């Protein structure tokens, strides 16, 4: 074979190889390697709570989150009220833990409040939009309405009122004024905050309380509620102060605070003593750690209007 023919042959071979590699058939396997495997989207988790709306005593719509995994209608029920400038979001990790301890709960937006933990106070927003008063004492009808609604619609067993800061003062006042509205009270950092009603308005009402009462606060806030605690008429009252500084209101129970376990131990002891519940659920409670519910996007489910 002449050099010219040999060179021509190799040119044809090279050209054929290049065309074969560039063809769709040759590239298909490479594309398959580069194409990522499609993964089915994860199913959205159901919220730990059920949104509800019902009217306050003056008709203003109250937004609440219902945490009620226990089906026994006699399960002890706690109505949770937030502190000043906040919302039902104060209880996003507290309520699930109370569920694990054997309680059903309802976290309420009062008309005096704002936003916390990314949760907007919808009741306060409506009140402002309607140009209604939003000072502390204006939230009293909301607290009364929430407790009455829970008693009538949700709780066939013991009903507890739980307040934080100004709402702690109001649950003491309301429970003293209406003896049958609640079967127990937990007050986190109460005080005589409603000065427009007098310097001892809360203490005077608290004198009529006969149900079990638990009071706590940050270490340096004891003087705010000392007089109220002494005035409480119930012989089943107890208090707790941390050895450390502690925190104001129900946020004292948030896991991010190192002294929260002490608060939880005190709360658990009070609840165990006065409000026994399903032993299987109670046996699963955790007293030294707070495992929050998984955070997820806000539920698109519309609140039920009652």
Map the helices and strands.
Blueprint: H1 3-22, H2 24-34, E1 50-55, E2 61-67, E3 77-81, H3 94-100, E4 104-108, E5 115-116, E6 119-120, H4 122-129, H5 140-154, E7 159-164, H6 166-177, E8 184-188, H7 201-206, E9 213-216, H8 222-231, E10 237-240, H9 260-274, H10 279-283, E11 304-305
Parallel strand pairs: 1-11, 3-4, 3-7, 7-8, 8-9, 9-10
Antiparallel strand pairs: 1-2, 2-4, 5-6
The secondary-structure class comes to alpha/beta
Number of helices: 10
At the first level of CATH, the class is Alpha Beta
Strand content: 15-25%
Mean pLDDT level: 85
Please name the CATH topology.
Answer: Rossmann fold
Return the domain count: 1
Q: Termini distance? A: 99 Å
The name of the CATH architecture is 3-Layer(aba) Sandwich
CATH superfamily: Alpha/Beta hydrolase fold, catalytic domain
The biggest beta sheet, please? 9 strands, mixed
**Helical content class:** 25-40%
Rg over alpha carbons: 30 Å
Q: Uncertain regions: pLDDT < 50 for 5+ in a row?
A: 10-45, 285-306
Helix-strand pattern, N to C? HHEEEHEEEHHEHEHEHEHHE
Structure notes:
The structure is a single chain. The chain is an alpha/beta fold and 306 residues long. It has 10 helices and 11 strands. The protein has a 9-stranded mixed β-sheet with strand order 10-9-8-7-3-4-2-1-11, sandwiched between helices. A two-stranded antiparallel sheet has the order 5-6. It is globular, with a radius of gyration of 30 Å.
